[in-house]
Amino acid sequence: MRLIADCHLHTTASGHAYSTIGEYANEAAKKGLELIAMTDHGPKMPGTSSILHFENLKIIPDSMCGVEILKGMEANIIDYDGSLDTGNLDVSRLQVLIASFHDVCLPSMGKEENTKAMINAMKNRYVNILGHPDDSRVEVDYRELAKAAADYGVLLEVNNSSLRPTSFRLNAAENYEKLLEECEKYKVYIIINSDSHIHTDVGEFAEALELIKKFKYPEELIANANISRLKERLNLRR
């Protein structure tokens, strides 16, 4: 299976990443990707950019090096009502909005509260991806998460960075197997992303693809295996 897009990457604007969007586009073109999404961390992440960064995304070209560029944000879930750190930003202008639970922005309070926070974030009609729901330090009810993703049309992310041996997230592979089992029951669309923090990692999906192959997850439910399917799922509630 060939993936044609990577919708989760961080530039130097995130504060703890090391490449520019131009470097990403050039690398993506070399690897044969058709589309990438620029999704720097929202302002509650220590060291990242302010809302001004996201208000000015319009100046970035729609394509570079022959690769389509979507402009977005990885927003932080900041309370158990699912609020995001988007402030008064007009999020309807973002083409990709990832909602992610980061414990530096919201402490883990157990399975019930963590699940509530993620599901409430998915109720936001502009959220189209739930980022890396895979860390045992942030326990989640995967059945409820999959049911909510099916109900709200949100893509659940399989994050390749989480599956690497160097990842700080705990038990990601085991947790993804639980999640994918529930996702298949409810016919949930997933997206496989690199979560790159340096341009050389864009389009690197080896660990995630190995997991998908092992689990035999249906290709027709993998959004970024097809460009039309991906765009349809990203725009489902917009």
Q: Number of helix segments?
A: 8
Give the name of the CATH architecture: Alpha-Beta Barrel
What do the pLDDT scores average to? 98
Any low-confidence stretches, pLDDT <50, length ≥5? none
Name the overall outline: globular
Tell me, what is the CATH class? Answer: Alpha Beta
Determine the N-to-C terminus distance: 28 Å
Please give the number of β-strands.
8
Strand and helix order: EHEHEEEHEHEHHEHH
Could you say how many structural domains there are in total? 1
Topology-level CATH name: TIM Barrel
CATH superfamily: Metal-dependent hydrolases
Helix content: 25-40%
Layout: helices, strands, pairs:
Layout: E1 5-9, H1 21-30, E2 35-41, H2 51-55, E3 63-64, E4 67-76, E5 96-100, H3 111-122, E6 129-131, H4 142-152, E7 155-159, H5 160-163, H6 172-186, E8 190-193, H7 206-215, H8 227-234
Parallel strand pairs: 1-2, 2-4, 4-5, 5-6, 6-7, 7-8
Antiparallel strand pairs: 3-4
Helix pairs in contact: 3-4, 4-6
